[in-house]
Design a protein that fits this description.
Blueprint: E1 8-12, H1 17-28, E2 32-37, H2 40-52, E3 57-61, H3 67-81, E4 86-89, H4 105-133, E5 137-141, H5 154-173, E6 180-185, H6 192-195, E7 196-200, H7 210-217, H8 222-232, E8 243-245, H9 249-264, E9 275-279
Parallel strand pairs: 1-2, 1-4, 2-3, 4-5, 5-6, 6-8, 7-9
Helix pairs in contact: 1-8, 3-4, 4-5, 7-9
The protein binds NADP nicotinamide-adenine-dinucleotide phosphate.
NADP nicotinamide-adenine-dinucleotide phosphate binds near residues 19, 90, 189 and 194.
Length: about 280
């Protein structure tokens, strides 16, 4: 018997990276899963992958920044699988690394539209359904910066700090309703978002140590996906308002010791996982 048998889950951004790993883990635990992203091709590929592993899966092309599309996603889950029990607001974009004032406004707005407006749209849509049926679990994915400001990553980090505050307020407001709301920081995860980095021209030097940081602390998406199964399961019944953080000091220490040992013993560094692309600063 799976931990999520009979449940229906929506995972935004479920076509690759952490979202796909969460969709696969949910599916392996018995949930029917509906994935969404902006690319129909990516949605079709993810659904085919889930179905090939004998999962019950569907998908929909959705931009989470558009409330109408997000509501259609919820309707799709109910039509296809007869209900909605879990909603993961996972879709996110990082934006480039660099000084805030050098961001092209459209790029800044895209981060806000996805990471802020998208989380609001998903939370609003899922919570209205959950409250009407008196059950359901909402999981909002946080990220670097959720605890406070991160210079040179201001769009992303501020959006994640907003995500934390928004999620905790929502959990407090809905405490007595039988619905559960969680914030989940997966730590550094080996996905496109982490390894395919854009940097605004002039800030390249600030990313000098980034490949070593990724080597030390990034983990495969299957690890946080397993934690997401736990959050979505009955193990968290009655525990609304939890913030689950997988980036612990112990993991940081273990990663740093591993990297230190490698350089002490003269072992060559593994091939670089990080690709950095330079984009021009916005004209002033
Ligand atoms: N990787 C890390 O180290 C890390 C660390 C902490 C937190 N996180 C968080 O984990 C979540 C997933 O990130 P990831 O690393 O898996 O990133 P990723 O590999 O880049 O995947 C992002 C997913 O979101 C979708 N997406 C992006 N914008 C969207 C939009 N407007 N509407 C709908 N779907 C959209 C993408 O598909 P399309 O491009 O096809 O739309 C893709 O499926 C994000 O919230 C991120 O902030 C990641």
């Amino acid at each position: 018997m799976g931990a999520l048998d009979g449940k229906v889950a929506v995972v935004t951004g479920g076509t690759r990276g952490l979202g796909l790993a969460i969709a696969q883990a949910f599916s392996a635990e018995g949930a029917a899963v509906v994935v969404a992203s902006r690319s129909q091709q990516a949605v079709d590929a993810a659904v085919a992958q889930l179905q090939a592993a004998r999962g019950r899966a569907a998908g929909r092309q959705v931009d989470v920044g558009d409330l109408t599309q997000v509501e259609a996603l919820a309707a799709c889950a109910k039509d296809q699988f007869g209900g909605l029990d879990v909603w993961v607001n996972n879709a996110g974009v990082a934006g480039p690394y660099g000084p805030t004032l050098d961001f092209t406004p459209d790029v800044f707005y895209q981060v806000v539209q996805t990471n802020v407006v998208g989380v609001y749209n998903g939370s609003r849509t899922a919570m209205r359904i959950f409250q009407a049926q008196h059950h359901g679990k909402l999981i909002n994915v946080l990220g670097h910066g959720y605890k406070g400001p991160v210079p040179w990553q201001n769009a992303y980090s501020a959006s994640k700090a907003w995500g934390r505050s928004f999620t905790m307020a929502l959990a407090a407001e809905t405490k007595a309703s039988g619905v559960e709301v969680f914030a989940f920081n997966p730590g550094m995860v080996l996905t496109d978002l982490l390894t395919d980095v854009e940097v605004i021209g002039g800030s390249e030097g600030r990313l000098r140590r980034f490949p070593a940081v990724v080597r030390m602390w990034a983990k495969p998406p299957e690890l946080p996906a397993r934690k997401a199964v736990w959050i979505a399961s009955t193990a968290t019944d009655g525990r609304t308002g939890l913030l689950i953080n997988l980036f612990s000091p112990w993991q940081m220490l273990a990663g740093a010791l591993g990297e230190g040992w490698r350089s002490l013993t003269g072992h060559p560094a593994p091939p670089d996982l990080v690709r950095v692309r330079t984009v021009p600063p916005a004209s002033r």
